């Protein structure tokens, strides 16, 4: 296959993100015809149709989605190369610099990431973290890394599907689930169950099915913070992991679920090329220190 130039990769990404050739051209400061010509040339080099063209714009085909994800990751390597090269001969504090893109699910972004980033940027003033909160549904944070939109994702690990092919990961911490209920309630297990969309059923399913006292959820909220608020208002009880329970206030009580309670793994996900970069390695160290 003929080599693709960086500008061809940028055009692929711009078309995918803007949804059309004209919009991509406007974003890049070039004409629509130049974008169309570049995409046709790239498709010829790759040997696959990358976009479905229509009146509504351009939508990546399955081949296009894969190509765009790899294009983002390759372009990111161009960006990181300068910082990695400049690190040679510098002090440890000066060696880590540039933008570090992180994707995290809500409770990790609230309770695990801030302290780690605080220490990281104190040690490496030239580092500029960019954090996106991503719902841990579907592709989740791992999907952001795979698509080239994040250098590192904080994800829930250990589910039946495992990591997407081509990604690396490691455990940062393990957290147990607990029962949370309105303070002072005499019989919390008799309350209605409140749940939220991102609750990791893969970690709790076998345990859940063995508990004949757990009713079907009567309310499902968008996030765990809403669940805690509703529990505090006396609307029911919930089964939540430790990170979520760090927001628990005086209106709720937390009860241990006993031996065999479900436990989930929280870890990092990255690509092989990002795993070797100084910034990603430094953040992983700080996350493990924070969790430990």
Give a structural overview.
With 292 residues, the protein is of the alpha/beta class. It has three domains: 62 residues, Orthogonal Bundle (Arc Repressor Mutant, subunit A); 105 residues, Periplasmic binding protein-like II (D-Maltodextrin-Binding Protein, domain 2, 3-Layer(aba) Sandwich), CATH 3.40.190.10; 88 residues, Periplasmic binding protein-like II (D-Maltodextrin-Binding Protein, domain 2). It contains 13 helices and eleven strands. Strands 3, 4, 5, 6, 9, 10 and 11 form a seven-stranded mixed β-sheet that branches. A two-stranded antiparallel sheet has the order 1-2.
Helical segment tally?
Answer: 13
CATH superfamily label of the largest domain: Periplasmic binding protein-like II
Q: How confident is the prediction overall: mean pLDDT?
A: 91
Determine the strand fraction and express it as a percent band: 15-25%
Instruction: Kindly provide the name of the CATH class of the largest domain.
Output: Alpha Beta
Distance from first to last alpha carbon: 47 Å
- Oligomer category: single chain
The CATH level-2 architecture of the largest domain is identified as: 3-Layer(aba) Sandwich
Indicate the low-confidence ranges by residue numbers.
none
The CATH topology of the largest domain, please?
D-Maltodextrin-Binding Protein, domain 2
**Biggest sheet statistics:** 7 strands, mixed
| Helicity, as a percent range | 40-55%
Query: How many discrete domains?
Result: 3
